[in-house]
Amino acid sequence: MQQSLAEKFYYLMKLGRVFELRAKEEYMKGNIGGFLHLAIGEEAVHVGATVAFEKGDIFTHYRDHVYAIAKGIEPKYLMAELFGKKTGVAKGKGGSMHFFEPSLNFYGGNAIVGAHIPHAVGMAYARKYRGENTGVLVAFGDGATNSGNFYESLNLASLWKLPIVFLCENNLYAIGTRIDRASAITDIYLKAKPYMMAKQIDGMDVFEVYKAVMEAKEYIQEESKPYFIEALTYRYEPHSMSDTGNYRSARELEIAKSKDPIERLKKSGLLSESYIKYIDDLVEKEIEEAVEFAKNSPEPEETELYTDIYCEVCKNVIP
Amino acid sequence: MLYREALNLALDEMMEKDETVVVLGEDVGFYGGNYRVTEGLYAKYGERRVIDTPIAENSIVGTAIGMALGGLRPVAEIMTANFAMLAMDQIVNSMSKLRYMSGGKLLLPMVVRMPQGVVKQLASQHSQSLESMFACVPGIRVFTASDCITAYHGLKTAIMLDDPVIFLEHTLLYFEKFEFSKDSFYNPFKARVLKEGKDLTIFSYLKMVHDVMKVVTQIENTLNISVEVIDVGPLNPLDLETLTNSVKKTKRFVIVEENPKHGGFGATILSAVLEETFYNLDAPPLRIAGEDTPIPYNRKLELLAIPTPEKIYSKIVKWGKENGL
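^ Those are the sequences you sent over. The predicted structure of the assembly is below.
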């Protein structure tokens, strides 16, 4: 069990990392436009939580690539989305920050900080209303926890006794503003404590994240009450590709990298060297194919500009 | 029937028919709604379906979005359009965009209802007409209801639609009586010709429709003309076809709107109609709008700030005489 989980975690974290490293390269070459927010360093949180919520609903912020991959969306459709192609997961209309796949219960990609938190609360209400108990997880950064959306959502989820896990990825920075310069309370889980069960965990350990989120999921399903997890993590890359990163020291980054979740898993003794090699090769190949797929895919038709705004047959809906 | 009763009936019938329809908002449940639009629904359908919320407008719309994603058809009530400003992020950045930026994968069958407009001495923060703010955002439909028929049929259609709808009501109409029949035909995607005429078209919507109707005979008699009156109905998408067809016939048009003139929705109507009818026109178009001021508390000043039947009459007569009518 432990070993098969370790193998799964390794595959997904590696797939996420190689996907993002490759996306960075393609961005530099000009094949990807707009903003590109990388989650490199945070994979343990994204993968551990998503594997625990395999069947549940997941809502995320704009740093959504690794969540989407872990939720089971094939990387080629995600890469094609980054390339703005017709075959992309959102037909090239969303880009990096807006990955969605409702058929896999993935409601990802919102790029207004904190705005998706009430969406997840509403989803939890709907699930409970319909008697579906697969659970809802919403992920957001430490920066979002200073916003009204956050507090309004904690209140509603607690008031309405909703089965939802709040997962805060505390990577210490809201773009370039360090947490102690933006938040009066720097142990984020304490903000949630008056409303619900809340704890702080090591977000650089994929097993710890998985275990905590599984426990939280079982709790919300049994008790029909919300649960809060603060995962301490770190992003190695700048906030986005246009961020200079001048707000943190090389030393700080080096310390964070020494806790790398993928390296840590490799050293756990649960993975054989041959397995690691097999996955590394597999992932390289898979991402190479994804890039080829994206490159060779057509641009969306010009008529796509006007679709997916209003329903086309709804004019028949007259009472 | 009262306007608020027509809205109530629409909600009741839709809730009865479809268990996925839920209502949420401040005081909508136990209290029965501040304008009594949701009266009786809490007792009939329970707190699970008629959901009292805290005063948190952003999350009222935000959770409604999540409910819609989860297979419900939420009808959110914002107590007044003024307070909807607190929900503008959810309306503008999520409600109107999720379908588009997911490439059509996410549907939001939801309605956000709210009253707006100048009432009586409620002062600046409770007296705004904000339709332009909603109507300028692609991806949400904006319906208006000016009487019982448009309220009842319009709201039912809005609930049935898979599109997110902003449903605008006018606070002063809630306790007004209008003719009503369930069988009356109304297409909420279309503008409505309330009165046919051949020399001039007057466009308006919400409460201004009634202020226009109060003086239309007087205008006709003074200028010795026949006037067509059109309730514009949906503000986005606009039923441009009905609007331009009328102007091509009458060759003159006036827009009456309660919101401030600068950036007011009438400017959008005017430019859209003008582009299609410029060479058909016998007179420059006229906008009768609110003043570009906040709404004051003092009743005398308040009435100076908005169109009234008297002002509509005198401005149209003056304009008509200057333009050969």
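Chain A touches chain B through 49 residues (CB under 8 Å). Chain A has a mean pLDDT of 95.

Shout if you want it in another format.
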